[in-house]
Amino acid sequence: MKEIFKKYGTIIGLLIIIISFGILRPNTFLSLRNWSNILQQISLLAIISIGATVVMVIKEFDLSISSVASFAGIITAGLLVDGYSMYLVIPAVLGLSFIFGLINGFFVAKLNILSFITTLSTGTFLGGITYWYSGGSIIFSGIPREFLIWGQGEFLNLALVIWIMFLIVLLFWYIFNQTMLGRQLYSIGGNEKAARYSGIKVEKKKIIAFGLTAVLSALTGILLASRLGSAHPTAGGGYLLRAYATVFLGMTLFKQGEANVLGTMVGVLIMGVLANGLTILNVPNYFQDMLTGSIIIAALVFQGMSVKSN
Amino acid sequence: MKEIFKKYGTIIGLLIIIISFGILRPNTFLSLRNWSNILQQISLLAIISIGATVVMVIKEFDLSISSVASFAGIITAGLLVDGYSMYLVIPAVLGLSFIFGLINGFFVAKLNILSFITTLSTGTFLGGITYWYSGGSIIFSGIPREFLIWGQGEFLNLALVIWIMFLIVLLFWYIFNQTMLGRQLYSIGGNEKAARYSGIKVEKKKIIAFGLTAVLSALTGILLASRLGSAHPTAGGGYLLRAYATVFLGMTLFKQGEANVLGTMVGVLIMGVLANGLTILNVPNYFQDMLTGSIIIAALVFQGMSVKSN
Amino acid sequence: ESKEIAVLTPYLESVTTNTMIRAFEEKAEAEGWNVRVIDTKGDFNELANRYEDVIAQGVDAIVMGMGDPNQLRQQINKAVEEGIPVFGGDAGFIEGMKVNVTSNNYVLGAQNTSYLLNRIGSGKIVKLYHSAHPGVYQREVVFDAIVDSRDDIEVVAEHYVQVPGPIENAQQAMQSILLSNPDIDGVWAAWDEPAIGAELAIRQAGRDDIVVVGIDGNSQAIEMIAQGSSIKATVKQDFAAMGDILVEQIKSVFAGEELVDNILYAPADLITEDNAADFMD
Amino acid sequence: MTAKLLQINNLTKTFPGVKALDEVDFSLAKGEIRALVGENGAGKSTLIKILAGIYEKDSGKIIFENNELEINNPAQAKDLGLAFIHQDLNLIPYFDAVENIWLGYDYPRKGFKFAKKEMRNKVLELKEKLNFEFEIDKPVAELSTANQWLVAILKAFIMDAKLLVLDEPTAALTDKEIKELFINLKEIKKMGISIIYISHRLEEIFTIADSVTVLKNGKKVADRQLEEVNKNDLIKLMTGKAELVRFPARENREKSDKKILELQNLSGDAFSKINFSLYENEILGFFGLVGAGRTELMEAIFGLRDIKSGELKLKGQKIANKSPGYMIEKGIVLIPEERRTEGLVLNMGVAENISLPNLELMLKSNVLKNIDNQKVKKESKKLVEELSIKTPSLKQPVKYLSGGNQQKVVIAKWLYRNNSVFIFDEPTVGIDVGARTEVYSLINQLLAKQSGVIVVSSDILELIGICDRIAVMSNGSLTGILKKEEFSQDKILQLAYEEVR
Ligand SMILES: Nc1ncnc2c1ncn2[C@@H]1O[C@H](COP(=O)(O)OP(=O)(O)OP(=O)(O)O)[C@@H](O)[C@H]1O
Ligand SMILES: Nc1ncnc2c1ncn2[C@@H]1O[C@H](COP(=O)(O)OP(=O)(O)OP(=O)(O)O)[C@@H](O)[C@H]1O
Ligand SMILES: [Mg+2]
Ligand SMILES: [Mg+2]
């Protein structure tokens, strides 16, 4: 029993939250429509959180994720408005962001600069570029309709972003659990020295990790622009803390507290369900904050209590 | 030579920045008046950053610092408007914040919840309270004039906040370098288990650390309210990232990369001087971001290069 | 049975948004409606999420509290499909919405810019702005246009004000600007908070020859004007009127009437030393 | 002899303040087992870390299979066929043994997934071959230290190595496992694989090695075939001292009947119903097989673990085992088993580590609680000298000290106070012969101050050599306490293997 709480405490917390909302507003909250809403609402947070998970696996921070997302959204929108084809622009922006991530990784892995300050600085730099490119204001008029498909379209009755999220979750779950790269990243996070002594090219893998994080952040930014039909130079700002919150929440799941894709997804769901459910319950704004804070703490205390005996 | 760069690279970086601005705008930038401005401008950031340093010494995060600052500002302003004496209100708010910090510490130390998620949650909770208390709007009319002394008054030709900052820096430098508590906190940060085996009451000290962080955050919030003559429910929001940026910047100074008061102060100065100098140079906003990002990275790369050979 | 009205905003923490929404709440509650305010702290994706939630929940009307509707096209369309009317409160207007009640930001910008220029005649001014906010951006556009057309006015420094913490940020920037440009005559702020920051810096520097103007009619700014600070003018949007108009428009829609206008403007008053006392609570 | 596998010429390596290797020559034939010995800090680990591509050499040549080469990183060393078991265990805590052992190689695949089964089988096979016993499916963090070493050893055995380097692999192993290891090392030798073997247990070297190289202060002082030397010769080469008494005699050995520590039916998670008394001026040994529960018992006495039932008495007074801080105040201290993770703050300096548990005795003012830095310096300097800790300065971060010197720092932490009970958990693991004798002398000295000492050790000879009585534990129970006159290896082992439920 204890073991179950220890292992799945956060999931149990999530279930309790869902059940509570379900009892309070069965018709609205439990409706299919609402769940398809919830899934859609969490999808972008999920993607960027998985990005954050990648660097957290190697015990690093990437604070540039929100800047990358904003940058990608603005540049994509700008280039589309300039008339370039979306099939050219999207890969190009993802590629550019990947390179940006590699540079982050280079500073961290090769030059040994703390990732927190590295990515804060490169993020600030990128933010400057984004401002410069956009003049500080929203880009929206002239964005071609076909671009909006990604963020607003549907496939088999589910929003396309949900499918994209599923794909990313699956892909990264696979990378982390069934590929050498994934295992090596975990080994670096577990004991960098041991990984190096085992012959793993630690620096290279770290750099790749930062690259992947940046790509996922950029993808989030692009999808966000498509979802909102417009790009805002600080659109990604809201994701930074929330992404890490979900990763940390997820870290309390499974094993010894490492960042992991499934944990992150549970974290994302907890956040998404809370926001959705509290809105449906008509809870006043300030009270939502108090409740969100308390519910998360309560869930963790609950789990912590059962784990404590170690 | 290498040793010098290794040890004082960040300080050298700071000096280079100062000299560059000095050459570009000798009359303005190097004027006494401007330096008294800079010191005043950094004072609040310095105080909250030292708060962040305290928890970073024990390798924990406190993300509630900005919420505590906002909370303290609003409650202080609110109570003053209600007619309570400032000599009662300020200690009470600091005390309340201290207790809040102890609660953070309790969750982290006693219940083993990751500090990142604990303080994010408690911070969200406190944010809710702040909103509820203030109705989400600014509090200013009715704040007694005498309260404004703290943030706007002068003493011996220097702003009072500068003196307060000096006092705090000195006090915490002393605590960390000359007292048992400081040494014990560092040992907990270095190896919690070894600290415990050395008979240190690890939990208790951790809880105290969180308490101290909260007090300094609250002090920052109160001084900010006094300085602006008004309190805003999200006034502290801007400090979160900047405070940790300075701490991390400072961690590249001295020793093995632990957070430390002097390092943090150099970090604060770098940030403050950059913001001030670039504004004096009339550098456009977006370009300021790019420059700030690049200069910090350059300074660290520069130092990193010289350290690398280890 | 009482009507459910959801007010969604990304900017509740901004003083003006807050005042406007409160004014509306008061009027709407007097009608017996149930008003709920949802804030997403500047996050538009979250804003879109919350739109979806209230649409799924089937509220009777949605009020968009500031924010650019262009970013919420899809959600507005959804609301239309569900037959939920969407009203703008100091937001923008796009197809599908019923109406936007606002003060004309271009006019606000023109009002405070003209006041500033009239007062100083000619000279050097500082611009404090924030283009990311659409309404605030519109004021800037007007300011730029007017200043461009005047050869005797020079913008010697401009600062993009950081949010959150605009007062402190503007104050710090102003301190530096005062040192590098001691000969400025005026400060144009795109809203009141940076104007207050500028005033704090000017006061600290012991200057009294600089004219600062803002927009919004923030009560702290009005008090400062009344006390004879460097802030000489602000433009107060009449939020109470805005709330009234919004409530009237919603009532008409509930009654099944077609609305005639897409955009309705609430009046705005220029507040200076002469009339500041009238506007203090 | 047969062909040369490895030849090292004039190898030099300096660290800030330390010349760790000074023009060292070294050569090794195919199929040779070469022991590498020397005092703590002599440079043994540094030498092999250069071979492993972890440290960069300052100068010198490395010739492997007749090619001069540079080894720039561990991956390259691995590709050359060099396998290492380093002194500091290098495992990924949350990986299980299977994955730890495979790490560094491409895992076998089956379709889209890793062939977990194949990986597992390979490890099982290897484990069987070496006759090791431990759980391979648990995260290694949950294994005992001894078992973690077994994992590290298997990890080196999985590759087709040409050279196997073991840096003190037996420090944490039991006799049984050591025996198995040696059988396997001999097998390996037969396959033509060379071995470099580092150990402070000189008896082992005579069992396993063909030849020996002695380092002293970074210089090579001798290369010998083992037939040519005996133990005393080696000790002399290592320490420069003519003769060494292994177990220093104690002067005031009169017995006391004053009970200092008394346990009555003490039970905890891994031990039950423990009864014994520790007398003043007594050294009480604790022997047991790995996992017998000795460490847990001691940690419980020290306040680190909960007591379920039973009583603890100090000088006749009942006390609660609240916390280590409280026990230290009362005069009970523990010198823990794992120095790197439990004993030291690696980033802190020598003086800072030594003063850490004694800070309240080194204050300028009891109100301000400010540290008297002069006193800290003076007292730690005294202890550093007393224990002859080899360090360039009092400020040197202890992570840069050699393993043995680290252990001395851990001991030094507790010598400053006047304590009633000293508990040493495996105090001589990884310590050179000379230093070991010093530790024994130190333990003797402690008794002079009206205290009692408990020594937990897996080295029977050591216990027989220094203790007044030896308690033996098996499976969480105390199976017997032997008086000095009853000491014999057989008796002790018999008690240790006694079946208890
Ligand atoms: N990374 C390092 N930085 C600074 N000094 C070091 C470092 N590694 C080792 N040393 C120093 O080099 C010397 C040789 O250390 P080494 O670890 O090789 O000794 P050793 O012979 O393996 O000793 P032990 O038997 O105690 O393990 C010691 O004085 C040690 O303090
Ligand atoms: N952190 C831990 N996690 C899981 N099991 C543990 C842990 N620590 C100890 N154990 C187990 O508890 C039992 C008692 O271990 P303990 O360390 O007290 O034995 P010991 O007699 O001191 O032997 P050793 O020579 O291994 O130290 C063993 O089975 C050990 O594997
Ligand atoms: Mg060694
Ligand atoms: Mg043990």
From TrEMBL, chains A, B:
Cellular component per GO, a single term: plasma membrane
Organism: Halanaerobium polyolivorans
Top-rank lineage group of the source organism: Bacteria
Keyword Transmembrane part of the UniProt annotation: yes
Gene Ontology MF terms in the entry: transmembrane transporter activity
Spans traversing the lipid bilayer: 7-26, 38-58, 63-81, 87-107, 114-135, 155-176, 207-225, 261-280, 286-305
Primary localisation category: membrane
Protein name (database record): ABC transporter permease
Protein's UniProt keywords contain Membrane: yes
InterPro entries: ABC_transp_permease
Membrane topology per record: Multi-pass membrane protein
Record keywords, A-Z: Cell membrane, Membrane, Transmembrane, Transmembrane helix
UniProt subcellular location: Cell membrane
From TrEMBL, chain D:
Boundaries of every ABC transporter domain copy: 6-242, 255-500
Its membrane topology: Peripheral membrane protein
This protein's record includes keyword Thylakoid: no
Alphabetized InterPro entries for the sequence: AAA+_ATPase, ABC_carbohydrate_import_ATPase, ABC_transporter-like_ATP-bd, ABC_transporter-like_CS, P-loop_NTPase
The keyword Zinc is assigned to this record: no
Recorded GO CC terms: plasma membrane
Subcellular location field: Cell membrane
GO molecular function terms noted in the UniProt entry: ATP binding; ATP hydrolysis activity
Pfam families: ABC_tran
Keyword annotations of the record: ATP-binding, Cell membrane, Membrane, Nucleotide-binding, Repeat, Translocase, Transport
PANTHER family (alphabetical): CARBOHYDRATE TRANSPORT ATP-BINDING PROTEIN MG119-RELATED, GALACTOFURANOSE TRANSPORTER ATP-BINDING PROTEIN YTFR
Protein name according to UniProt: Sugar ABC transporter ATP-binding protein
Species, as recorded: Halanaerobium polyolivorans
